[in-house]
Amino acid sequence: MTIENVLENLPDLEAGWVWLAGAGPGDVGLLSLLTLKGMQQADIVIYDALVNQEILDLVGKNTVLEFAGKRGGRPSLKQADISERLVVHAKAGKKVLRLKGGDPFVFGRGGEEARRLVMSDIPFRVIPGITAGIGGLAYAGIPVTDRHTNSAVTFLTGHGEDGGLSKDIDWDALAKSSPVIVVYMALSRVELMCQQFLDSGRRPDEAIAIISKATTSEQRVLETTLACAAEDVKRAKLEAPAMIVLGENVKLRSGLDWLGAMKGKILTADLSDIVPQGQK
Ligand code: SAH
Q: Which SS3 state, helix, strand or coil, does residue 268 take?
């Protein structure tokens, strides 16, 4: 089978339908075939700020691009307005692709948009994408799980109410039960977040990594400790979007930073530095 055959055999984006698709974390190579097909067939692609130009360049010749995110002072659409745009275009018989960074159902409000479509009887398909909290870590050489370090992981958002952290989370229980914690949208709250983890009993010398612009050509990774993270992030002037990962798995990077290896870093398969799970 050729790639053309494969694409042809995938479902078509039909008139009056909305596909809620994930674009992945940045690298165009991480786009799924279904998302690519939808982008080429769509009459309109409504995309958000996390989707980069290289990916947007792949839309069909006659596809209209509509921006629905927050960026660079341009007025941003409210969530209800974005959902409404999807409904209006679908009702007008357009083939609509809603393109979101990462995975649409991971801190992406994909569920809210889909529910709005259900309310208006608009048929839709959801196309998962590679989420930054997994794929972004992989590009930093950090496995989200590893038998030696963690058999559980928690994903959470750094954005809570009133500029603080979420009050819905039992922070002490989380700190105790989750060996690895991966935080989205945390760059502006690093200090608060780290203090919370310390207050909840995590070790000050615990490994933490901050991954900025993961999977893009501007990816930067800062490895530090929980106690030093807030200071180090400021000093390094890391930019959004960024992920934070706290846990012993961060140390595996010394052996798995495959991107670093391409630039000459020597990898070591030595695990002696790792505190095996269950032995803290
Ligand atoms: N749906 C997206 C997440 C949207 S929330 C997903 O599944 O990845 C936005 C947050 O995602 C950002 O604040 C940042 O924490 C994270 N993020 C998205 N893309 C990223 C990237 N390329 N590098 C680092 N973090 C990223």
A: coil
Using the atom order of ligand 1, give the atom closest to the CA of residue 25.
22
Does some domain include residue 107? yes
Structure-block tokens of residue 182: 């991966």
pTM listed for this prediction: 0.95
**40 plus 146 within the same structural domain:** no
Q: Is 25 in the pocket of ligand 1 (CB under 6 A)?
A: yes
Q: Tell me the average pLDDT across 242-251.
A: 98
Render pLDDT for 176-200 as a digit per residue (tens, 0 to 9): 999 999 999 999 999 999 999 999 9
Question: Atom 19, ligand 1: which residue's CA is nearest?
Answer: 25
> How many angstroms separate the CA atoms of 223 and 226, rounded?
10
Do both 146 and 239 map to the same domain? Answer: yes
Residue 162, domain member (yes or no) = yes
Domain boundary residue, one of 130, 160, 175: 130
pLDDT digits (tens, 9 = 90+) for 28-52: 999 999 999 999 999 999 999 999 9
List of residues 6+ apart from 22 with CB closer than 8 A: 32, 35, 100, 101, 102, 103, 104, 108, 127, 128, 129, 130, 131
Range of the domain at 39: 3-130
Domains in the chain: how many in total?
2
Check pocket membership of 245 for ligand 1, CB cut-off 6 A.
Answer: no
Q: Which of 107, 212, 259 is the pocket-test mutation for ligand 1 (most atoms within 8 Å of CB)?
A: 107
> What distance lies between CA 242 and its chain's CA centroid?
9
